[in-house]
């Protein structure tokens, strides 16, 4: 009923505007166009000028903590933030240790990565609800770097037997920690620099389908990388393109060496976690605080491993030594920076893209603003400072963020509380988990990734809504799986941008007609009641006009108008040339005939035989009409109106294309008018020398209807002029006829 009433109300609302037809020159005059522009010198002075309020605003924007913490509503938020912080801190323990396995570093460094970066983000971040820390996608990207630059083969030592070798795990882990910290430090520097130059818009190139497909593919990389812990086998980890396939093939070849004890631990843990999470979801409506399923799982697994002695009896690999306390900062290995620039930049972009995407979701939901550039700076400082404390790259986690919000978290105070929880674990509790089986951590990763696996459902939904986005999703998944997360990201962004280019190269070209009784013009092929205006062609492209589609724009115009002006002009030139050749040939033949007759006349006169002089007819000069052949002129419209309202910029090729269209149709006797031009488009035409003494802005109109009325007014003026000439000639003849008729009557 409301929709029907709204429709009826719209039908009753009418408007009537009476004004003159305005071209661009008239609009500039009426609206008093301003050409004032702030000089670049003044802009630079204003940018570098430092005033008290400006300095204060800049200082608080760089350190947001100083602006919101003094105004923190303690009574309203403190309880929720405390409960939320403790809940998220408990989640950090199993996730930090599990994701450290993905990064190929000892589990304790996952706890470090859940402490230092959180404190930095607490000071410099602008999102109130995201939970930064270890993240599966970032960890697997770090792991690909560490295992590529420090493979097991570089740390082989001779064993007790003659032909046996063992891995120096202590040296290997130390080298991998150094590599992880260095690439994290470099990625933080990249984020910091991008934030300082206000480059936060780079995340716009990461569309939602691309990010979701990329995280899905990265989750598959994560799962494959953890299979060796599930089956208890010792497989190599490959890097580079097709490494995922090589890893799967090697794991399949080593399945015969599966450690049954490890496999049983994995299966029991996975089944237990799935059942516990389902029960926790059912109990969530009654219990305000989420049940820490992962924490309970690692406690039970640690106790069981210690009591049964899984490490000794069943050769189940355990976490091992977890040093208590914090470590002093260490400078990164600057000698390695050159070999990891691409990896660090990929980490910087992916980490920022995931954090800002989730941050904007919460900001929109809870009505506050997230500064994209400040987020870059906050993440950059978190990673660069964290790298000096031997952390690996961090981002934000969807699961932890959802827990932080659902348990009452209102600000980053909850993040600071979770960091305190991790600090207590590092100082006192961490060493209690030394007997924890790594298979349990792998099982925690599997269960936590089930949400990402659900993203495969995007394919069906995107197929119904936007097939191009569906293609981007599928190609991102394939490229990331085949090329690894770092190269896959670059290839996916390139493919996504190419789809935009292709869509501008293949726009929809339409002929517009008028909706009866209105000034609205719609594509003729889309509406039954929309008819073309006789003698006029109104042409529109759905995309901007630039070098990639300029030729197709012209071809489509020729096709829609039904006349290829280039061929028409070429045909006319050929006819003109043919006419000139025949005239020249006829004139030459006539000249020869005249000479022959003059010679005969001289001979006859000399012989005195005048009566034999033959009189010959004069040869006419052949003439060929320019329009002979097919009657192409009859198919030409009187005028063409180009609707440029979808065009948001013009390059030099676009300006040249419009100039050629105007020139070619003009030579064919067809007027061309442009309408809906934005100011930037007009400025590009001015700079491209489109306008001159003959072509002025009088061919530009603000709307299609203005251009149509102008063309119709011009035709009416021509018709009136013809009628005036007819009247001026007819009246004197009529008077003469009356006079003659009267005189004849009197004579009779």
UniProtKB/TrEMBL annotation:
Q: Transmembrane residues, as ranges? A: 99-124, 179-201, 244-275, 287-308, 344-364, 376-400, 412-429, 436-453, 473-502, 725-746
Q: How does it sit in the membrane?
A: Multi-pass membrane protein
Compartments, record wording: Membrane
Which keywords does UniProt give here? Coiled coil, Membrane, Transmembrane, Transmembrane helix
Q: Which InterPro entries match?
A: S04_transporter_CS, SLC26A/SulP_dom, SLC26A/SulP_fam, STAS_dom, STAS_dom_sf
Where would you say this protein principally sits, based on its record?
A: membrane
Record has Membrane as a keyword: yes
One Gene Ontology cellular component annotation?
Answer: membrane
Indicate the segments annotated as coiled coil, or none if absent: 570-607
Domain named STAS is located at 526-711
Return the Gene3D superfamilies for the record: STAS domain
Q: Name one Pfam family in it.
A: STAS
Protein name per the record: Solute carrier family 26 member 6
Species in which this protein is naturally found? Triplophysa rosa
């Amino acid at each position: 009923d409301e929709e029907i009433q709204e429709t009826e109300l719209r039908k009753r609302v009418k408007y009537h505007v009476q004004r003159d037809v305005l071209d661009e020159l008239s609009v500039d005059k009426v609206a008093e166009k301003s050409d004032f522009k702030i000089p670049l010198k003044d802009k630079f002075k204003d940018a570098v000028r430092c005033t008290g309020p400006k300095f204060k605003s800049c200082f608080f924007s760089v350190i947001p903590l100083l602006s919101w913490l003094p105004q923190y509503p303690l009574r309203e938020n403190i309880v929720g933030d405390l409960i939320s912080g403790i809940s998220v801190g408990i989640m950090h323990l199993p996730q930090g240790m599990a994701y450290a396995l993905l990064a190929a570093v000892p589990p304790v460094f996952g706890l470090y990565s859940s402490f230092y970066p959180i404190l930095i983000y607490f000071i410099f971040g602008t999102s109130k609800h995201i939970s930064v820390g270890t993240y599966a996608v970032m960890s697997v990207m770090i792991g690909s770097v560490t295992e590529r630059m420090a493979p097991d083969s570089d740390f082989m030592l001779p064993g007790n037997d003659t032909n046996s070798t063992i891995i120096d795990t202590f040296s290997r882990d130390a080298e991998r920690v150094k590599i992880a910290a260095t690439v994290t430090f470099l990625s933080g520097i990249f984020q910091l620099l991008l934030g300082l130059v206000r480059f936060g818009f780079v995340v716009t190139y990461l569309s939602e389908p691309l990010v979701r497909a990329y995280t899905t593919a990265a989750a598959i990389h994560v799962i494959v990388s953890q299979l060796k812990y599930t089956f208890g086998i010792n497989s190599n980890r490959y890097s580079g393109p097709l490494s995922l396939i090589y890893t799967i093939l090697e794991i399949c070849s080593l399945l015969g060496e599966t450690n049954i004890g490890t496999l049983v631990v994995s299966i029991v843990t996975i089944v237990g976690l799935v059942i516990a999470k389902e029960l926790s979801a059912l109990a969530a409506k009654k219990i305000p605080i989420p049940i820490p399923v992962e924490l309970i799982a690692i406690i039970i697994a640690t106790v069981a491993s210690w009591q049964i002695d899984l490490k000794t009896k069943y050769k189940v690999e355990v976490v091992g030594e977890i040093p208590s306390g914090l470590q002093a900062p260490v400078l990164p290995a600057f000698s390695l920076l050159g070999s990891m620039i691409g990896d660090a930049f990929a980490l910087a972009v992916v980490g920022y893209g995931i954090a800002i995407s989730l941050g904007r979701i919460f900001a929109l939901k809870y009505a506050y603003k997230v500064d994209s550039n400040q987020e870059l700076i906050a993440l950059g400082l978190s990673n660069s400072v964290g790298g000096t404390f031997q952390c690996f790259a961090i981002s934000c986690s969807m699961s932890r963020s959802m827990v932080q919000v659902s348990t009452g978290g209102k600000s980053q105070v909850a993040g600071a509380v979770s960091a305190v929880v991790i600090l207590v674990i590092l100082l006192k509790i961490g060493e209690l988990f030394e007997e924890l089986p790594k298979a349990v951590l792998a099982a925690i990763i599997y269960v936590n990734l089930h949400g990402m696996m659900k993203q495969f459902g995007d394919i069906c939904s995107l197929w119904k809504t936007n097939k191009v986005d569906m293609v981007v999703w599928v190609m991102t998944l394939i490229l990331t799986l085949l090329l690894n997360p770092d190269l896959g990201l670059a290839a996916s962004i390139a493919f996504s941008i190419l789809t935009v280019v292709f869509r501008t190269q293949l726009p929809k070209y339409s002929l517009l007609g008028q909706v009866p009784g209105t000034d609205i013009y719609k594509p003729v092929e889309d509406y039954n009641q929309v008819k073309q205006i006789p003698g006029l062609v109104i042409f529109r492209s759905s995309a901007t006009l630039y070098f990639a589609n300029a030729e197709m724009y012209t071809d489509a115009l020729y096709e829609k108008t039904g006349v290829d002006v280039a061929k028409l002009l070429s045909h006319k030139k050929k006819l003109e040339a043919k006419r000139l050749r025949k005239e020249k040939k006829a004139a030459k033949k006539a000249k020869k005939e005249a000479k022959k007759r003059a010679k005969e006349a001289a001979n006859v006169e000399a012989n005195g035989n005048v009566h034999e002089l033959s009189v010959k007819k004069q040869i006419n000069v052949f003439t060929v009409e320019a329009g002979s052949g097919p009657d192409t002129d009859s198919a030409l419209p009187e005028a063409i109106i180009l609707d440029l309202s979808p065009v948001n910029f013009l390059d030099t090729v676009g300006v040249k294309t419009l100039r050629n269209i105007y020139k070619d149709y003009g030579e064919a006797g067809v007027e061309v008018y442009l309408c809906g031009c934005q100011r930037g488009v007009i400025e590009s035409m001015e700079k491209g020398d489109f306008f001159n003494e003959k072509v002025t802005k009088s061919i530009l109109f603000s709307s299609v209807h203005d251009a149509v009325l102008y063309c119709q007014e011009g035709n009416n003026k021509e018709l009136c002029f013809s009628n005036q000439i007819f009247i001026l000639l007819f009246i004197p003849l009529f008077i003469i006829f009356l006079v003659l008729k009267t005189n004849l009557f009197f004579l009779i």
